[in-house]
Amino acid sequence: MLKRRNAAVMAVAGLGLALSLAACGDDDSAGGSDAGDGGSVGKIGVILPDTESSVRWESADRPALEAAFDEAGVEYDIKNAEGDADNMTKIADGMIADGVTVLAIVNLDSESGAAIQEKAASQGVRTIDYDRLTLGGTADYYVSFDNTKVGELQGQGLADCLGEKPANIIYLNGSPTDNNATLFAEGAHSVLDGISSYKKVGEQAVPDWDNDEAVTIFEQLYTKADGKVDGVLAANDGLAGSAISILEKNGVAGEVPVTGQDATVEGLQNILAGTQCMTVYKSAKLEAGALADVAIALAKGEDAETTGTTTDSSDNSEVPSILLDPQPITKDTVKDVIDDGGQKKEDVCSGEFEKLCADAGIS
Ligand code: BGC
């Protein structure tokens, strides 16, 4: 059912984005806006969620978004809500007052996200959900990866590391306020629950993806399972790191496979060191590029090219979407992330990791 959103999805053939006006400044770009074909577009606002739940937002998404908008020659403003939904609301109000014509958010929870989108729409500002779907929201488009597939890749990755022998598994899920976390867990369970030799011995969601709280939560789950834990489904690399710290404390890091997501420097290093069995790489360049394409189309009053629709589980409405393909990464393919520019070799292969990188064929 397409009800409150932009139903007509027309392909916008090649936006022909030329480098017309280079934006400057690391936060707020300067200059006018011209999407390269002479059509003037307004300013685009993006609000990232925080700096703690994953390093990706500031280390990968921000630079990729800046590069995509700079390349398109559009004016933009990227801010970070620092994990505070009231702060995100204030930033959104400020951006709307400042005249953005398109606003993209990575919501901190669906309720505050939906309120921001409603207010934006009432002022004639088009909105986009970036990475996280706002349940009950009014975003015109949703740009993300196939998040159920992310969970399936994590489940399959853990199964590949565990093999078929009986295994006790702990699930350390993402924030209960993040719709993605629900999809990751569903995807992982869809694979692991089908393997009869596996047993779930603990599962908990980590509020706000808080890595410190995850250490405490994981330790409690581990103790409750009497340390009889053979595998850990951790929803991202940060949570994986939290679990690994407790496995280390118990002298079993490296023996108990742990999954992850985001292909962070730390996650890739843990994979090289053998304490993490896999991660999921979601190219920030692709996601930011897709967001820029949609934002520019909207700013020009056009429809954007989509890959399909996503069902908002709160009201069964369909949101026009661009969903990208996530990639599983193991020790053998850490080099693919580096080759793709997802991380820099000098960051991943520093110090003690130099030799491990060479052993993994990263030259
Ligand atoms: C994103 C993940 C990220 C997590 C914590 C999720 O919504 O899809 O990439 O690790 O939030 O920020």
Q: Kindly provide the radius of gyration, computed on alpha-carbon positions and rounded to a whole number of angstroms.
A: 21 Å
Arrangement of strands in the largest sheet: 2-1-3-4-5-11-10
Number of strands: 12
Q: Give the CATH level 1 class of the largest domain.
A: Alpha Beta
Strand content: 15-25%
Structure class: alpha/beta
Q: Termini, distance in Å?
A: 51 Å
Biggest beta-sheet profile: 7 strands, mixed
Tell me, rounded to a whole number, the average pLDDT: 91
Structural features, described:
The longest helix is centred in the N-terminal third of the chain and has 17 residues, at 56-72. With 363 residues, the protein is α/β, with parallel strands linked by helices. The chain has helices spanning 56-72, 85-97, 110-122, 147-162, 179-192, 211-224, 237-249, 265-273, 284-299, 334-339, 345-348, 353-359, and strands at residues 43-48, 76-80, 100-105, 126-130, 141-145, 167-173, 198-205, 231-234, 279-281, 308-312, 317-324, 327-329. It folds into 2 domains: 29-139 and 283-325, Rossmann fold; 147-281 and 328-358, 3-Layer(aba) Sandwich (Rossmann fold), CATH 3.40.50.2300. It is globular, with a radius of gyration of 21 Å. Helix 1 (56-72) crosses helix 9, helix 2 (85-97) runs parallel beside helix 3 (110-122) and helix 6 crosses helix 7 (237-249). A hairpin with a 4-residue loop joins strand 10 and strand 11. The strands form 3 sheets. The protein has a 7-stranded mixed β-sheet with strand order 2-1-3-4-5-11-10, sandwiched between helices. Strands 7-6-8 form a 3-stranded parallel β-sheet. The protein binds beta-D-glucopyranose. Beta-D-glucopyranose is lined by residues 53-54, 56, 131-132, 174, 178, 180, 209, 236, 261-262.
